[in-house]
Amino acid sequence: MLNASVARSIAHRYAGRGIAQADLEQVAYVALVRAAKGFHPDRADDFLTYAVPTIRGEVKRWFRDHGWTVRPPRPVQELQSTLLRIGSERGSLPVSELAEVAHVPEQRVREALDARGCFTPTSLDAPLPAADDRSTGTVATLGDTLPGTDGGLAGCETRLALEQAIRTLRPRDQQVVRMRYLEDRGQAEIGEAIGVTQTQVSRILDRIIDQLRGQLGDLDHAA
Questions:
Q1: Which first-to-last residue range defines the signal peptide (predicted)?
Q2: Which CATH number fits domain 1-67: 3.30.70.1660, 1.20.120.1810, 3.90.180.10, 3.40.640.10?
């Protein structure tokens, strides 16, 4: 096919970002055919002047729509494409210079750079650096560092049960719990706020804890 090498060259610019090279080339070829059908000599000096932007636009749209495993907001996608182009033209640049060339704040540059893994996220089976255990012959992976699912669900259920139990307390007892465990206030400060002594606050907290333990224990038996 005439000018097929041009289409392949454009597709090659987006290689290694999560989409098979063959798929990108196919998109470029289809765009080349579409450009050939839509070309008129009065629209451009020659065919490639018209075809190259058409092919590039089709490949970029395909890549934008299909190349993200995790899809960040559109402005982040577009800025990342701009930064990739700048990098290919000028080489590796610090964030401050990238922001200056792209005419955007440094924070936006950092957000776009942080989204680079959205094309091809790191596999959970990827080994951790220097993580091989020669004594057992095993290799620790990224997935090994994640918390277990069951533990997370159990913790969530416990928090929900505790929230429900706290709602059954008297208003003053709820206030004491909030000040002590959410606002991290001392017993003397709590006593001043509710008009009792520090010793009384200590007794109130002990009573509340016993009451909550009893309610949570009843929930466990019911389950």
A1: none
A2: 1.20.120.1810
The beta strands (E) that lie in the chain are given as 127-133, 138-141
Segment (H or E) for 200 = helix 198-222
The span from the CA of 128 to the CA of 80, in Å, is 27
H-type helices in 39-94, by residue range? 47-66, 74-90
Fold for 152-222, please state it.
Arc Repressor Mutant, subunit A (1.10.10)
pLDDT in tens, 111-169: 887 766 555 555 556 565 554 444 445 556 655 555 554 444 555 666 777 787 888 88
Token pair belonging to 181 = 């465990």
CA-CA distance, 7 to 11, in Å (whole number)? 6
Task: Please list, residue by residue across 78-99, b when 16 or more beta carbons sit within 10 angstroms of its beta carbon and e when fewer do.
Answer: ebbebbeeeeeeeeebeeeebb
CA angle, 204 then 182 then 167, to 5°: 65
Using one digit for the tens of pLDDT, what is the confidence trace for 101-125? 989 898 888 888 776 655 555 555 6
Q: How many residues does the chain have?
A: 223
DSSP state of 141: E
**What letters, b where the CB count within 10 A reaches 16 and e where it falls short, cover 116-151?**
eebbeeeeeeeeeeeeeeeeeeeeeeeeeeeeeeee
The amino acid at 68? W
